Amino acid sequence: MSTVPTIALNNGVSIPQLGFGVYQVPPEDTKGATLTALEVGYRHIDTAEMYGNERGVGEALRESGLERSEVFVTSKLNNGFHAHDDAIAAFDESLEVLGFDHLDLFLIHWPLPGIDVDFVETWQALEEIYRSGRAKSIGVSNFQANHLRRLVQETEIVPAVNQIEVHPYLTNDDVRAVNTELGIATEAWSPIAQGLVLDDPVVTGIAKDHDRTPAQVVLRWHIQRGDIVFPKSVTRSRVEENFELFDFELSTADMGLITALNKDERTGPNPDEFNWIP
Question: 3-state class of 193 per DSSP?
Fold first, then answer.
Protein backbone atom coordinates (compact mmCIF):
# COMPACT_ATOMS: atom_id res chain seq x y z
CA MET A 1 0.00 0.00 0.00
CA SER A 2 1.27 3.45 -0.89
CA THR A 3 2.20 5.88 1.84
CA VAL A 4 0.41 9.17 1.25
CA PRO A 5 2.49 12.23 2.15
CA THR A 6 1.01 14.87 4.41
CA ILE A 7 1.13 18.65 4.14
CA ALA A 8 1.41 20.84 7.23
CA LEU A 9 -1.27 23.53 7.23
CA ASN A 10 -0.54 27.00 8.59
CA ASN A 11 -1.89 26.07 12.04
CA GLY A 12 0.28 22.95 12.32
CA VAL A 13 -2.45 20.44 11.42
CA SER A 14 -1.35 17.76 8.94
CA ILE A 15 -3.57 16.86 5.97
CA PRO A 16 -3.00 13.88 3.66
CA GLN A 17 -2.12 15.22 0.21
CA LEU A 18 -4.34 12.63 -1.48
CA GLY A 19 -7.94 12.17 -0.44
CA PHE A 20 -11.24 10.79 -1.71
CA GLY A 21 -13.95 13.15 -2.91
CA VAL A 22 -17.68 12.39 -2.80
CA TYR A 23 -18.92 15.23 -5.02
CA GLN A 24 -21.79 13.94 -7.21
CA VAL A 25 -21.82 10.57 -5.43
CA PRO A 26 -25.52 9.84 -4.77
CA PRO A 27 -26.37 9.78 -1.05
CA GLU A 28 -27.43 6.13 -1.25
CA ASP A 29 -24.04 5.18 -2.73
CA THR A 30 -21.84 7.31 -0.50
CA LYS A 31 -21.36 4.90 2.38
CA GLY A 32 -20.27 2.10 0.05
CA ALA A 33 -17.96 4.30 -2.00
CA THR A 34 -16.36 5.77 1.11
CA LEU A 35 -15.92 2.34 2.69
CA THR A 36 -14.16 1.20 -0.48
CA ALA A 37 -11.83 4.20 -0.34
CA LEU A 38 -11.02 3.55 3.31
CA GLU A 39 -10.32 -0.13 2.53
CA VAL A 40 -7.96 0.90 -0.27
CA GLY A 41 -6.06 3.13 2.15
CA TYR A 42 -7.44 6.66 1.82
CA ARG A 43 -7.45 8.56 5.11
CA HIS A 44 -8.84 11.88 3.85
CA ILE A 45 -12.48 12.32 2.80
CA ASP A 46 -13.88 15.52 1.24
CA THR A 47 -17.64 16.15 1.43
CA ALA A 48 -19.94 19.18 1.71
CA GLU A 49 -23.36 20.14 2.98
CA MET A 50 -24.34 20.96 -0.61
CA TYR A 51 -23.61 17.39 -1.73
CA GLY A 52 -26.31 15.96 0.55
CA ASN A 53 -24.19 12.92 1.38
CA GLU A 54 -22.45 13.72 4.67
CA ARG A 55 -24.45 11.02 6.46
CA GLY A 56 -22.96 8.29 4.28
CA VAL A 57 -19.44 9.49 5.05
CA GLY A 58 -20.08 9.28 8.79
CA GLU A 59 -21.67 5.85 8.50
CA ALA A 60 -18.75 4.55 6.44
CA LEU A 61 -16.17 5.74 8.93
CA ARG A 62 -18.02 4.10 11.83
CA GLU A 63 -18.39 0.82 9.93
CA SER A 64 -14.76 0.83 8.76
CA GLY A 65 -13.40 -0.01 12.20
CA LEU A 66 -11.02 2.94 11.99
CA GLU A 67 -10.75 5.44 14.79
CA ARG A 68 -12.16 8.89 14.09
CA SER A 69 -8.67 10.32 14.63
CA GLU A 70 -7.29 8.20 11.76
CA VAL A 71 -9.35 9.89 9.04
CA PHE A 72 -9.19 13.55 8.00
CA VAL A 73 -12.70 14.73 7.09
CA THR A 74 -13.61 18.01 5.38
CA SER A 75 -17.04 19.52 4.88
CA LYS A 76 -18.22 22.86 3.52
CA LEU A 77 -20.85 25.45 4.37
CA ASN A 78 -23.87 25.47 2.07
CA ASN A 79 -24.52 28.67 0.17
CA GLY A 80 -27.79 29.59 1.89
CA PHE A 81 -26.20 29.95 5.34
CA HIS A 82 -23.73 32.81 5.10
CA ALA A 83 -25.27 34.92 7.88
CA HIS A 84 -23.33 34.55 11.14
CA ASP A 85 -25.90 32.60 13.17
CA ASP A 86 -26.98 30.56 10.16
CA ALA A 87 -23.39 29.47 9.51
CA ILE A 88 -22.95 28.24 13.07
CA ALA A 89 -26.29 26.40 12.97
CA ALA A 90 -25.37 24.79 9.64
CA PHE A 91 -22.04 23.64 11.06
CA ASP A 92 -23.82 22.10 14.04
CA GLU A 93 -26.17 20.32 11.63
CA SER A 94 -23.19 18.93 9.69
CA LEU A 95 -21.71 17.47 12.87
CA GLU A 96 -25.04 15.91 13.76
CA VAL A 97 -25.56 14.39 10.31
CA LEU A 98 -21.99 13.06 10.20
CA GLY A 99 -22.25 11.80 13.77
CA PHE A 100 -18.97 13.48 14.73
CA ASP A 101 -17.91 15.73 17.58
CA HIS A 102 -15.53 17.67 15.32
CA LEU A 103 -14.46 18.21 11.72
CA ASP A 104 -10.84 18.31 10.66
CA LEU A 105 -11.54 21.08 8.15
CA PHE A 106 -14.59 23.25 7.47
CA LEU A 107 -14.77 25.58 4.46
CA ILE A 108 -16.88 28.40 3.11
CA HIS A 109 -17.95 26.70 -0.12
CA TRP A 110 -18.32 29.81 -2.33
CA PRO A 111 -17.62 33.52 -1.73
CA LEU A 112 -20.97 34.58 -3.31
CA PRO A 113 -19.81 38.15 -4.00
CA GLY A 114 -23.24 39.33 -5.14
CA ILE A 115 -25.37 38.42 -2.12
CA ASP A 116 -26.30 40.66 0.79
CA VAL A 117 -24.36 38.76 3.47
CA ASP A 118 -20.67 39.49 3.14
CA PHE A 119 -18.26 36.55 3.28
CA VAL A 120 -16.25 38.39 5.94
CA GLU A 121 -19.18 37.96 8.34
CA THR A 122 -19.34 34.31 7.37
CA TRP A 123 -15.64 33.87 8.03
CA GLN A 124 -15.98 35.43 11.48
CA ALA A 125 -18.52 32.70 12.30
CA LEU A 126 -16.00 30.08 11.20
CA GLU A 127 -13.37 31.72 13.39
CA GLU A 128 -15.68 31.19 16.37
CA ILE A 129 -16.18 27.55 15.40
CA TYR A 130 -12.41 27.10 15.13
CA ARG A 131 -11.79 28.65 18.53
CA SER A 132 -14.35 26.27 20.03
CA GLY A 133 -12.24 23.32 18.87
CA ARG A 134 -15.08 21.76 16.90
CA ALA A 135 -13.22 22.40 13.64
CA LYS A 136 -9.52 21.64 13.81
CA SER A 137 -8.90 23.88 10.78
CA ILE A 138 -10.98 26.32 8.73
CA GLY A 139 -10.61 27.48 5.17
CA VAL A 140 -12.31 28.65 2.02
CA SER A 141 -13.22 27.30 -1.38
CA ASN A 142 -13.38 29.07 -4.74
CA PHE A 143 -11.95 32.31 -3.33
CA GLN A 144 -10.15 34.59 -5.75
CA ALA A 145 -7.08 36.65 -4.90
CA ASN A 146 -9.10 39.76 -3.99
CA HIS A 147 -11.38 37.74 -1.71
CA LEU A 148 -8.38 36.27 0.11
CA ARG A 149 -6.71 39.62 0.61
CA ARG A 150 -9.91 41.07 2.09
CA LEU A 151 -10.17 38.22 4.57
CA VAL A 152 -6.57 38.60 5.66
CA GLN A 153 -6.96 42.37 6.09
CA GLU A 154 -10.31 42.33 7.91
CA THR A 155 -10.23 39.17 10.05
CA GLU A 156 -7.86 37.46 12.46
CA ILE A 157 -7.29 33.92 11.18
CA VAL A 158 -5.70 33.18 7.81
CA PRO A 159 -7.53 30.36 6.00
CA ALA A 160 -5.70 27.05 6.19
CA VAL A 161 -6.68 26.06 2.65
CA ASN A 162 -8.30 27.45 -0.47
CA GLN A 163 -10.03 24.75 -2.51
CA ILE A 164 -10.14 25.92 -6.13
CA GLU A 165 -10.60 24.47 -9.60
CA VAL A 166 -7.19 23.39 -10.89
CA HIS A 167 -6.24 21.05 -13.73
CA PRO A 168 -3.95 21.15 -16.78
CA TYR A 169 -6.48 23.22 -18.76
CA LEU A 170 -6.87 25.68 -15.82
CA THR A 171 -3.61 25.86 -13.92
CA ASN A 172 -4.99 28.82 -11.91
CA ASP A 173 -1.44 29.91 -11.13
CA ASP A 174 -2.37 33.46 -10.13
CA VAL A 175 -4.60 32.27 -7.29
CA ARG A 176 -2.16 29.50 -6.35
CA ALA A 177 0.59 32.14 -6.07
CA VAL A 178 -1.50 34.27 -3.71
CA ASN A 179 -2.30 31.16 -1.66
CA THR A 180 1.43 30.51 -1.33
CA GLU A 181 2.16 34.14 -0.49
CA LEU A 182 -0.40 34.10 2.33
CA GLY A 183 0.56 30.66 3.66
CA ILE A 184 -2.65 29.01 2.41
CA ALA A 185 -2.51 25.45 1.05
CA THR A 186 -4.05 24.86 -2.39
CA GLU A 187 -6.62 22.11 -2.77
CA ALA A 188 -7.51 21.24 -6.37
CA TRP A 189 -11.05 20.29 -7.27
CA SER A 190 -11.89 18.88 -10.71
CA PRO A 191 -8.24 17.73 -10.88
CA ILE A 192 -8.71 15.87 -14.18
CA ALA A 193 -11.15 18.47 -15.61
CA GLN A 194 -14.02 15.98 -15.36
CA GLY A 195 -12.05 13.73 -17.70
CA LEU A 196 -11.48 16.32 -20.43
CA VAL A 197 -7.68 16.18 -20.17
CA LEU A 198 -7.42 12.39 -20.23
CA ASP A 199 -7.51 12.18 -24.03
CA ASP A 200 -5.05 15.01 -24.56
CA PRO A 201 -2.15 13.72 -26.70
CA VAL A 202 0.43 15.25 -24.36
CA VAL A 203 -1.07 13.47 -21.36
CA THR A 204 -1.54 10.15 -23.15
CA GLY A 205 2.02 10.32 -24.49
CA ILE A 206 3.51 10.88 -21.04
CA ALA A 207 1.29 8.13 -19.63
CA LYS A 208 2.62 5.70 -22.25
CA ASP A 209 6.21 6.66 -21.45
CA HIS A 210 5.66 5.88 -17.76
CA ASP A 211 3.39 2.85 -18.30
CA ARG A 212 0.69 4.64 -16.31
CA THR A 213 -2.86 5.74 -16.98
CA PRO A 214 -3.59 9.33 -18.05
CA ALA A 215 -5.44 9.92 -14.77
CA GLN A 216 -2.44 8.79 -12.73
CA VAL A 217 -0.17 11.13 -14.72
CA VAL A 218 -2.43 14.15 -14.19
CA LEU A 219 -2.90 13.41 -10.49
CA ARG A 220 0.86 12.96 -10.12
CA TRP A 221 1.34 16.38 -11.79
CA HIS A 222 -0.83 17.87 -9.05
CA ILE A 223 1.07 16.06 -6.32
CA GLN A 224 4.43 17.31 -7.59
CA ARG A 225 3.08 20.86 -7.83
CA GLY A 226 2.12 20.66 -4.15
CA ASP A 227 -1.66 20.56 -4.64
CA ILE A 228 -3.91 18.56 -2.33
CA VAL A 229 -6.22 16.39 -4.46
CA PHE A 230 -9.24 14.16 -3.81
CA PRO A 231 -10.36 12.40 -6.99
CA LYS A 232 -13.81 10.79 -7.02
CA SER A 233 -14.91 7.43 -8.38
CA VAL A 234 -17.45 4.82 -7.36
CA THR A 235 -15.55 2.11 -9.26
CA ARG A 236 -13.16 0.19 -7.03
CA SER A 237 -10.54 -0.31 -9.75
CA ARG A 238 -10.37 3.43 -10.35
CA VAL A 239 -10.32 4.18 -6.64
CA GLU A 240 -7.30 1.87 -6.42
CA GLU A 241 -5.71 3.34 -9.57
CA ASN A 242 -6.02 6.89 -8.22
CA PHE A 243 -4.26 5.82 -5.02
CA GLU A 244 -1.15 4.54 -6.80
CA LEU A 245 0.64 7.83 -7.34
CA PHE A 246 3.70 7.57 -5.14
CA ASP A 247 5.89 4.96 -6.82
CA PHE A 248 6.74 7.00 -9.93
CA GLU A 249 7.80 10.56 -10.71
CA LEU A 250 7.33 12.91 -13.62
CA SER A 251 10.40 14.64 -15.03
CA THR A 252 10.79 18.40 -15.12
CA ALA A 253 10.12 18.19 -18.87
CA ASP A 254 6.94 16.17 -18.29
CA MET A 255 5.74 18.69 -15.73
CA GLY A 256 6.40 21.58 -18.11
CA LEU A 257 4.57 19.95 -20.99
CA ILE A 258 1.47 19.36 -18.87
CA THR A 259 1.53 22.85 -17.37
CA ALA A 260 1.80 24.32 -20.87
CA LEU A 261 -1.62 22.83 -21.71
CA ASN A 262 -3.27 25.64 -19.75
CA LYS A 263 -5.97 27.53 -21.63
CA ASP A 264 -7.83 29.05 -18.67
CA GLU A 265 -10.77 26.74 -19.36
CA ARG A 266 -13.14 26.17 -16.45
CA THR A 267 -15.35 23.13 -15.98
CA GLY A 268 -17.29 24.91 -13.21
CA PRO A 269 -18.61 28.38 -12.40
CA ASN A 270 -16.54 31.55 -12.25
CA PRO A 271 -16.28 32.47 -8.54
CA ASP A 272 -16.49 36.18 -9.39
CA GLU A 273 -19.95 35.66 -10.88
CA PHE A 274 -21.43 32.66 -9.08
CA ASN A 275 -24.15 33.61 -6.59
CA TRP A 276 -26.39 30.53 -6.66
CA ILE A 277 -28.25 29.61 -3.48
CA PRO A 278 -30.06 26.26 -3.39
Answer: helix
Specify the pTM: 0.97
> Can you give the residue range of the structural domain that contains 11?
6-192+226-232
Q: Which of 42, 51, 130, 169 is catalytic?
A: 51
Write the burial class of residue 3 (CB in 10 Å: 0-12 exposed, 13-18 middle, 19+ buried).
exposed
Beta bridge partners of 77: 108
pLDDT, average across residues 83-93:
98
| Cβ-based neighbours of 123, under 8 Å, separated by 6 or more | 108, 138, 140, 151, 155, 157, 159
3-class SS at 229?
A: strand
For the question of residue 51 being annotated catalytic, the response is yes
Domain assignment present for residue 276? The answer is no
Q: How far from 22 is each of 17, 53, 104, 208, 232, CA to CA, in Å?
A: 16, 8, 16, 29, 6
The verdict on residue 278 lying in a domain is: no
Cα distances from 51 to residues 24, 28, 115, 191, in angstroms, run 7, 12, 21, 18
- The predicted-structure confidence for 108-123, as pLDDT tens digits, reads as follows 999 999 888 899 999 9
Q: How far is CA 256 from CA 17, 65, 172, 183, 267, in A?
A: 21, 42, 15, 24, 22
3-state DSSP helix/strand/coil % of the chain, to nearest 5 = 45, 15, 40
